[in-house]
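Treating backbone geometry as a discrete language has practical consequences that deserve illustration. In the encoding step, the backbone of a single protein was reduced to a row of integers, each denoting a local shape. The amino acid sequence and the backbone structure tokens for this protein are reproduced below.
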Amino acid sequence: MLDRARGQSAEPTRNETGSWFDRARAKYGLGALLVAAGVVLFVFPEPITSTAGLALIAVGAIIWLAG
């Protein structure tokens, strides 16, 4: 049965009930999300966030390129 207003099924399916992180990971990939999070952390002026940002960028790039 379809919900015509939203164009989706009335019963929730696996794709509709997942968290926003699961939907984003399925759409963009885990590597891309790690790179984006790393860039956000890198721009903060604290040394620990910049270091964590660089680490996330490196891990995300490896995952992204390997996939």
